[in-house]
Design brief:
Chain lengths: 259, 296
Amino acid sequence: MTALIAVQLHERRRSLLAWGLPLGLMSAFIVAIYPSVEDALATAIRDYPAALKEAFGIGELTNVEQYLEAEMLSLIVPLAAGYLAVRSIASGLSGAAESGRLDVLLSAPLSRNRLVASGFAATAIELAAVLVVSLLVTLIGGWLAGAGLSTGAALAGFANVWPLALLFAGLGIVVTGWSLRTNVVTGSVAGVLVAMYVADLIGRLDTSLDWVRYGSVFRYYGSAIEDGIDPLAFCGVVIVAVVLATFGALLFSRRDLSP
Amino acid sequence: MATIETEQLTKFYGGERGIEDVTIAVEEGEVFGFLGPNGAGKTTTIRTLLDLLHPTAGSARIFGLDSRRDSVAIRARLGNLPGDFGFGKAASGREALALLARLRGLDDLDRGEELARRFRADLDRPLGQLSRGNRQKIGLILALFHRPELLILDEPTSGLDPLMQEEFLALVGEERERGCAVFISSHELDEIERVCDRVGIIRDGRVIAVERVAELLGKTQRRVTVAFAEPVDPAELRAIGGVSDLEATDGRVTFHVSGELDAVVKAIARHPIADLELAHPTLEEVFLTYYREERD
């Protein structure tokens, strides 16, 4: 299985540049401009409605970590990482079925469960690597601009994205158990990703609708850059991701692989 | 024990028929041709044998093992060329070979290199930059490099130029000598005739005949065209058993013959011949022969 993981990682090495670098550069830019906009922001934020600040996790924006959270880690980075996760799963399974690679791989003594497990593991490593690159670029940007970004807080903020994205990888495997069409897998899971974000947003804006947040992974995502990683939520989401991947592998092993 | 043994193997896609009651056996060291037009069920049969499709009914055993329950153990011992071979665009043949070797627990790629030289395959270019025929060569190498006990090849010569087709047919002969069973699906009768010991004919999802190749050709009609150097009474040929549809114009006689050719050849040889053409039956003509038998 390690051979298959290594090959997938080798093929996805460009993700570091295509996803990790842009996310890191955007985050670095946000961090770098913070010292120059700090005062104007504080004034503006004071006039924002409380519900809006709560919904977008804006708070008071009194430090660079809060600004990075509001601009990048509450929306752009998790959405991008979640989409990358399902895209990687889709390319490793449904994409491989469409290209004919799956038929060749499954001519070898390789079980479908191991094939799925290798795809999930490769995606988990790829996500971690992309987040590490983003974090490093962000830290370098903050250091060059003298923004005073806390390394520990930034590490927690980026690390907290990993289980959330992994959950969408697991969901992608479940959908692959039903459909081997790449656009169906990526489209439906990306839709769920956005729907979960919107559900969380609605629940925050209107406390009477708080219950809708329970179905969204964003409820358990929190704000690790400010509050630190919640180990229970972190591990819980990872476990759900693994359970989804296992269920998806079961569906995948039972389905026909039609050309 | 047969290398491949299916018993009323059936696959339906929802309500749509894929294959129905396919019962065949392929022996060790035998080259078995699976002949049928596009859509007849050849690929469905192969994908069911490989556990890529799950049968609706019936069973398949390979090396005496259940094709579903023991599919991983079976695949360790076979080589497969899918009908539409692909491995993505970015990977090179060498990368694909190295990955499959690792999945099979092999370190030695010498056989793969040897096959690449033989097929004049470029292992270093990304597969997306190769022509269909050159990709097919890579597919053949991946199917053969680990010296399997069973080869399952779906339309193996598709896209290969005539020289490489010859090379492939020679290789199949060598694999048979080694004791490898070979299951080849094709819609090219000529290819099947040259390399196979027995042939199964599938049409509309059902196997309508399993014959030795010689028997198959003996049953089917071949078209004979003879240009005689001097006038010949066509009745002489018409009287020979198995001759039908005879037409004679300007010293040229065209007719169909089924069964043994011996009497026809001897009758023709009694006259001076300017030209002679013996056309092999087309796949449709083969089917017509079997349909006629079924009706009778």
